Automatic annotation (TrEMBL):
UniProt keywords, alphabetically: ATP-binding, Nucleotide-binding
GO MF: ATP binding
Transmembrane segments: none
ABC transporter domain segment(s): 5-232
SUPFAM superfamilies per the UniProt record, alphabetical: P-loop containing nucleoside triphosphate hydrolases
Protein name as it appears in the record: ABC transporter ATP-binding protein
A Pfam family matched in the record: ABC_tran
SMART domains given in the database record: AAA
Origin: domain of life: Bacteria
């Protein structure tokens, strides 16, 4: 399998706090990897190190075989941060245009592309509204639409479905599965345990390590429990 993301023995501390001790992780084409772990386990830190936003203290993170950040790779990836980074004084459409330009997406066909990604997150009707009037869920959806711009080969989504209603959540997951079938690679963190059943592989981050890394059904069998939620709880119990 072609490796899109590869983390090798990554360690990262903030002051005395050792967040990541020895993290190995990989993501290939046509794969959805769910990164799970308790709040504060370091999921966002894994993403930040992967994207080169934070520098690892030890080990290396590769994206498309390169150490990030690499400007020329931006166009091949879509990133949705845990906290929305949007221009509140602009409309949703203007936000999408701005980020499309930043990612070097060509102006030709951009209007259609904006409509396409807005439809995926059901924001089509709100495109010309100002973001300052958006609800939290609408902002989340706009952030996701921005990450989808240009149909990038790699998607990195940090808690993409927070504040999003069940029906739309399903629609978003259907889109992610479609992209996976087309050969995209998707890294997603979530707190919604039933979403963790929808990924190809769950990486469980606890105590600074990836303590389990397998298909949801395999993890459930390994832990002898019926759901990923139970795997999570049992792993937490075993660690404490
Ligand atoms: N820039 C930073 N400076 C200092 N501490 C940080 C920084 N970034 C993260 N941390 C700390 O590192 C730990 C892991 O944070 P991180 O945001 O990666 O966790 P998380 O697993 O994403 O949590 P959540 O599920 O709540 O989003 C936390 O204790 C956090 O306070
Ligand atoms: Mg986080």
């Amino acid at each position: 399998m072609e490796k899109i993301i590869s983390l090798e023995k990554v360690a990262k501390s903030f002051g005395k706090l050792k967040v990541l001790k020895d993290v190995d992780l990989s993501l290939g084409r046509g794969e959805i990897l769910g990164l799970l772990g308790p709040s504060g386990a370091g999921k966002s830190t894994v993403i930040n190190v992967t994207l080169g936003v934070e520098k690892a203290d030890a080990g290396t993170a590769y994206v498309f075989g390169e150490v990030m950040p690499q400007r020329q790779l931006l166009g091949k990836m879509g990133y949705m941060a845990q906290s929305d980074a949007l221009y509140e004084s602009l409309t949703a459409r203007a936000n999408l245009k701005f980020f499309a330009e930043m990612h070097g997406i060509s102006k030709e066909g951009l209007d259609e592309e904006i409509n396409r990604v807005a439809e995926v997150v059901s924001l089509g009707k709100a495109l010309d509204q100002y973001v300052f009037g958006f609800s939290g869920g609408m902002k989340r959806r706009l952030s996701l639409a921005i990450a989808l711009l240009g149909n990038p080969l790699l998607l990195v989504l940090d808690e993409p479905t927070v504040g999003i209603d069940p029906a739309l959540r399903r629609q978003i997951w259907a889109e992610l599965h479609k992209m996976k079938e087309e050969g995209h690679a998707i890294l997603v963190t979530t707190h919604v345990m039933d979403e963790a059943e929808l990924v190809d592989r769950v990486a469980l981050l606890m105590g600074g390590h990836v303590i389990a890394n397998d298909a949801p059904k395999k993890l459930e069998a390994q832990y002898g429990v019926p759901s990923i939620e139970d795997v999570f709880l049992k792993a937490e119990e075993e660690l404490s």
